[in-house]
Amino acid sequence: DTGVSQDPRHKITKRGQNVTFRCDPISEHNRLYWYRQTLGQGPEFLTYFQNEAQLEKSRLLSDRFSAERPKGSFSTLEIQRTEQGDSAMYLCASSPLGLAGVKTQYFGPGTRLLVL
Amino acid sequence: AQSVTQPDIHITVSEGASLELRCNYSYGATPYLFWYVQSPGQGLQLLLKYFSGDTLVQGIKGFEAEFKRSQSSFNLRKPSVHWSDAAEYFCAVALNSGYSTLTFGKGTMLLVSP
Known about the structure:
Chain A is mostly beta strands. Chain A is built from no helices and eleven strands.
């Protein structure tokens, strides 16, 4: 399967705990995006990587959130000291870089986080 | 900043009937337009996209969408809905600048009645 994969698919944690999610993009895709989707809303952009460089971060990404893509392949998203408001679906997407212009983003199945 | 409006939160359609889901965007130039579908608890699957050229675009699963510049709209249509089409549908736009992040509408939940 050459699609975007995410792990875990579901995570339940207690408030104050740290959690880490992993995303494996489609191989050879240089761009990787993280989005957050809360109930009844569309996905909202969190952060973007081009290869290993984190080039853009949304204001939604508080100091408790950190994302990495150390070798330009898989990426991790860590949330420290989780709060109940962090409960959401976290979606990862990847796209090829190409020479110019917008490229289609392909999404993974998401990680659903519930903070108790 | 660009925005996307999907005016209908829920739509119920009888199986076999036609479907149109509305999407309007707000941006000064022509953005790049997408429709994605999301089944319960799942990620997003791309249905179709518009970058340029013919304003009527065909997608997977029998869906099509028409870009109307004068109305800033990109409505999704299907001539005959199947029960398996029940899902949530998201319209999204991207700019041909920066890092092409997507801005999504709030989605329209499609219910299919027998």
